[in-house]
Design brief:
alpha/beta; UDP-N-acetylmuramoyl-L-alanine:D-glutamate ligase; six-stranded mixed beta sheet; 8 helices; 12 strands; binds pyridoxal-5'-phosphate
Length: 276
């Protein structure tokens, strides 16, 4: 090998693609996803679904990209590069969600997909128009994992989740009706213990695994859902099994939550990897 040149045969680089909204604060959305991929040592590719106008106090505006731009970007990228995993976050509009669906349906070999079914920001601003929910549900068919929080699980399954058993019923709907391989219903919004429920398709049944959660003291932290889904996606890109990827990602986010701090006047931000 010539001195100074790179031997491309000795390394295999893993690539994760995020399809998400842009958050200029860097705390959520595509910017946060890329930081997580980088922390895992995975190359991050990204296609933007919407620009947002926001700061640490909340979202002031959402501008979906032209659907044809999302479609063309995805087609161009995926014709050349095959990511090891695709993470889908905020889809903003029905037309953009349909473009994503169209681009992914054209893949010769399906790529494992992690979907964070983002419906609204913590301040209540809608991040996905209501008429796009059916496409979001369709995208879940065949997805490796979907990661709703409790309000998203309630809205998408139309189940009023009050008891522990209701969460298992909702989880079964994601797997058995929407067709995803697994669902992680996050318990952070629960007033009781913030346990997560991981439900995995197993033969013709659904295996329910309760994962004990720890409430980390402090105020609201921006973008934890994005970080968790991206960390799981990065773990999958590195060939971890689903349960291992989920377990690792939960610990990754918990460590960053412990070091969270405020950059602006609103919600805190997760600590960057390597700083606790
Ligand atoms: N902006 C973008 C682009 C997002 O994807 C999200 C959440 O997924 C948010 C803002 C809101 O983040 P949070 O509700 O954690 O403040």
């Amino acid at each position: 090998m010539r001195r100074g040149s790179v031997d491309l045969t000795i390394r295999t680089m893993k690539c994760a693609l995020t399809i998400a909204g842009s958050d200029p604060t860097g705390g959520a959305g595509l910017q946060a996803d890329l930081q997580v991929f980088s922390a895992y040592g995975v190359h991050g590719a990204g296609v933007i679904t919407a620009l947002t106008l926001q700061d640490s106090t909340g979202v002031r505006g959402v501008m979906p990209v032209f659907p044809s731009v999302a479609l063309d970007q995805l087609r161009t990228l995926l014709a050349d590069i095959t990511p090891a995993v695709i993470k889908i976050g905020m889809l903003a509009s029905d037309d953009v969600a349909r473009s994503v669906q169209l681009a992914l349906s054209g893949l010769a070999t399906p790529v494992p997909t992690v979907i964070d079914p983002v419906l609204a920001a913590s301040d209540g601003t809608s991040l996905l128009e209501r008429r796009a929910w059916p496409v979001l549900r369709e995208l879940m068919n065949g997805a490796q994992l979907v990661t709703p929080n409790l309000p998203e699980a309630e809205l998408l399954t139309e189940i009023n989740i009050e008891r522990t058993l209701d969460r298992e019923t909702a989880a079964a709907i994601f797997v058995e009706k929407f067709g995803c391989e697994a669902v992680l219903i996050k318990g952070g919004h629960h007033t009781g213990p913030p346990d997560d429920l991981l439900a995995i398709r197993k033969d013709s049944a659904t295996r329910m695994i309760w994962l004990e959660g720890e409430r980390i003291p402090g105020g609201p932290v921006h973008g934890t859902g994005c970080a968790l889904a991206s960390a799981i996606a990065a773990g999958l890109a590195l060939d971890k099994g689903l349960e291992e990827a989920v377990d690792h990602a939960r610990r990754f986010v918990a460590a960053r939550l412990r070091g969270a701090s405020r950059l602006g006047s609103g919600a805190a931000f997760l600590a960057p990897a390597g700083k606790h």
